[in-house]
């Protein structure tokens, strides 16, 4: 919350200006308001709006995307859905436009088989901060018959994801939603938090751990890159993996590790008493 001495109207005006800007108009307004209020509360040096824009640049991670989203929408619309192998080749081309999913391409054929080797086949999967990972659904559906729901704070990714799912997985959808500002998604068998935990921690210390602890999923798969963007070992990852294992130990959850060439996953199995009632399943009404 903004401190009592801060100018609430100025903070609101700064959030409104950022939301109208071309760079951030696709970012969820709750995300923008949350980041602006956080910067106002922090009391750092320099104008609040400038500091908020700097942080939003990291939060929205638009710098990880190469090419305009309008071009990606056209490429997705032209994907050959009638030919499974051609569809995969087209998906790989689009996935290569985003740094995080491009890194996964080397392991993509093995990713879901390796993950599902340590847990039961899920009926419902939620992909938190999915970005373009929705285009890996053809690989997911080769390993299980699950309904996929993505969540992302970027409206462009939501639009691209829903256009893709309408062609290949009509029962799935992507929701415009910020899990930090608005809370975790509804219940699922498996929650994916792929190379996002450290980004949540950078946004607000403790928010990644809090999300893992509160998300209503039987299993939570948290992954970390094996290397940072500069090519060096991801030294931030081991302490965070240990943090997750300590959480599991406190809560009596199971822990499995899956290591691929570009990514390492910590798969947590939650205790039955930590789950909500079976009726609390994902619905399209959860629109953030």
Could you please describe the fold and organization of this structure?
The chain is α/β, with parallel strands linked by helices and 288 residues long. α9 links the parallel β2 and β3. It starts with 7 loop residues before the first helix and ends in a 19-residue tail after the last strand. It is 44% helix and 15% strand. It has 13 helices and 7 strands.
**Major β-sheet strand ordering:** 3-2-1-4-5-7-6
Order of helices and strands: HHHHHHHEHEHEHEHHEHEE
Quickly give the structural class: alpha/beta
User: How many angstroms does the end-to-end distance come to?
Assistant: 20 Å
Which characteristics define this entry?
13 helices; 15% strand; alpha/beta; 7-stranded mixed beta sheet; 288 residues; single chain; 7 strands; 44% helix
Task: Offer a concise description of the structure.
With 288 residues, this protein is α/β, with parallel strands linked by helices. It has 13 helices and seven strands.
Sequence-ordered SSE layout with sheet pairings:
Blueprint: H1 8-20, H2 29-42, H3 48-60, H4 69-77, H5 84-95, H6 99-104, H7 108-116, E1 124-128, H8 137-140, E2 147-152, H9 155-168, E3 173-176, H10 179-182, E4 188-194, H11 197-203, H12 207-214, E5 217-225, H13 237-251, E6 254-259, E7 263-269
Parallel strand pairs: 1-2, 1-4, 2-3, 4-5
Antiparallel strand pairs: 5-7, 6-7
Helix pairs in contact: 1-2, 2-3, 4-9
């Amino acid at each position: 919350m903004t401190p009592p001495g801060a100018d609430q109207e100025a903070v609101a005006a700064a959030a409104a200006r950022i939301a109208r800007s071309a760079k951030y108009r696709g970012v969820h307004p709750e995300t923008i308001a949350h980041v602006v209020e956080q910067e106002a509360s922090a009391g750092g040096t320099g104008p609040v709006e400038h500091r908020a824009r700097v942080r939003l640049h990291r939060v929205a991670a638009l710098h990880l995307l190469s090419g305009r989203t309008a071009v990606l929408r056209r490429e997705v619309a032209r994907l050959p859905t009638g030919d499974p192998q051609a569809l995969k080749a087209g998906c790989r081309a689009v996935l290569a436009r985003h740094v995080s999913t491009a890194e996964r391409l080397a392991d993509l054929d093995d990713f879901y088989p390796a993950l599902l080797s340590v847990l039961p086949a899920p009926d419902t999967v939620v992909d938190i901060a999915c970005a373009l990972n929705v285009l890996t659904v053809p690989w997911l559906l080769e390993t299980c018959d699950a309904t996929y729901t993505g969540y992302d704070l970027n409206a462009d990714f939501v639009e691209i994801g829903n256009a893709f799912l309408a062609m290949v997985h009509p029962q799935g959808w992507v929701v415009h939603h910020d899990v930090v500002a608005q809370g975790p998604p509804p219940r699922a068998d498996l929650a994916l938090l792929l190379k996002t935990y450290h980004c949540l921690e950078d946004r607000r210390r403790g928010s990644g751990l809090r999300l893992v602890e509160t998300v209503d999923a039987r299993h939570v798969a948290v992954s970390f890159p094996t290397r940072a963007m500069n090519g060096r070992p991801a030294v931030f990852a081991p302490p965070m993996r240990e943090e997750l294992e300590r959480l599991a130990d406190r809560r009596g959850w199971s822990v499995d590790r899956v290591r691929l060439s570009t990514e390492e996953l910590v798969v947590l199995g939650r205790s039955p008493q930590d789950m909500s009632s079976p009726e609390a399943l994902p619905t399209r009404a959860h629109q953030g």
